[in-house]
Amino acid sequence: MDIIVLKPGSSEEALRHLLKKLESMGLKANVSQGTERTIIGVIGDTSKVTENEEDAIRAMEGVENVVRIVKPYKLASRDFRKENTEISVRGTVIGGTKIQVIAGPCAVENRTIIMSIAEKVREGGATFLRGGAFKPRTSPYAFQGLGEEGLHYLADAREKTGLPIVTEIMDPRDLDVLMQYADIIQIGARNMQNFRLLLEVGSVNKPILLKRGLSATIKEWLMSAEYIMSRGNHNVLLCERGIRTFETATRNTLDLSAVPLLKQLTHLPVVVDPSHGVGKWDLVAPMAKAAVAAGADALIIEVHTNPEEAFSDGEQSLKPEFFAALMKDMRPIAQAVGREI
C-alpha cells in the first residue's frame, strides 16, 4: 500500500478521515492534488501493513484504488506521478517544452569576472547563471570558494542580467544563507549520499539540483532524490554529470543512456552536465548536442572569459564565443525532437 488514488470529486472530509487513519497506523502521507484526481503517497514502512488493513483502506469513502509500488523510490517514481514535473524558477520553467541552459564559471572568483561572464552567457542565450561560492575540492589546499562574499556577487549578477542563479551547498550550516541568495541549490556529486544534507534541503521550499554521484547507480541516485522528497520538497532536478569507469581518456564517462531511462522511471526533470562529463572543452559541444537529442530538460555548461586563468576547471570551460556558437547549433537539434532552446 504505497499509493492511494481518490475518486474524482472526493470530499475534503473523506480526505481528512483517510489521513487520520494513516496516521493511526504510524504512516505519513504526501498529498498530490491533480486536475482530475488526488493521489496520496504513503510514507513509512508499508511492508507491515496487513492485507486486512489494506482492504479496510480500500473500503473507505472516496478511495478508488490502492497500489503497491515495487520500486523503493515512491515519490520520485513515474508510478506516483504520470505527468512530467515542471519546476518554475522566477517564471522560467524547467521540465517543459523549452530546454533551459545553465551557464557560468566553476567558481565565483571576484565580482568583475562573474559580472562579465554573466553578461556574456546571457547574450549567448543562457537562461540561468551558475557559479560556486562554496567549492568542494579534492585537495584541501586548492581554492575553496569565496563563501558568502561569492553569493553577494552572484546576487549582483542576477540583478544586472535577470538570470536566476544556481550554486552549491556543502554544509547544512550554510543552508540559511544560501536560502537568501540562491534560486536553485545544487547538491554536488560528492554529497549525493550525504543523507543529513539531503534531509535538510528537503525541508525548504527551494528547487534542488541533485548531481549523480561519481559511482552511483540509477537506483541509488533516485533514492537520494527520495530522501529530499520525503521531507516535502518535490522540486528536485536530476543532473547526470558523468560517472567513474575504467576509461581515463575523459574526466568521467557521460552516461547519456541515463536520460531516456530516467524519463521512464521518474517524473522529475533531467539535467545533463557535459562539462564535468568529459572534462575537455572541445568535447563539451558534441556531448551537449547529444544530450539535447537524448531528451534532456536542461544543460549545465561551464563558461569562462579566460579559461587559462580560471581558479578551477578551466580545461573544461568554454569561452563565451564558443558557448554562443553551441547555443546556435543546438536549436535545430531541439526542434527535431519537438523542443526548443
Please render the helix and strand layout as text.
Blueprint: E1 3-6, H1 12-24, E2 28-33, E3 38-43, H2 51-58, E4 63-67, E5 87-89, E6 92-94, E7 100-104, H3 111-124, E8 128-130, H4 148-161, E9 165-169, H5 175-181, E10 184-187, H6 195-202, E11 208-211, H7 218-230, E12 236-240, H8 258-265, E13 270-272, H9 274-278, H10 281-294, E14 298-302, H11 320-336
Parallel strand pairs: 7-8, 7-14, 8-9, 9-10, 10-11, 11-12, 12-13, 13-14
Antiparallel strand pairs: 1-3, 1-4, 2-3, 5-6
Helix pairs in contact: 3-4, 3-11, 6-7, 10-11
Can you summarize this structure?
It is elongated, with a radius of gyration of 21 Å.
CATH topology of the largest domain: TIM Barrel
Strand percent estimate: 15-25%
Strand order of the largest sheet: 7-8-9-10-11-12-13-14
| Mean pLDDT across residues | 93
Q: Multimeric state of these chains?
A: single chain
| Percent helix range | 25-40%
The total count of helices amounts to 11
Overall SS class: alpha/beta
* Number of E-state strands: 14
Low-confidence parts: none
- Estimated radius of gyration: 21 Å
State the fourth-level CATH superfamily of the largest domain: Aldolase class I
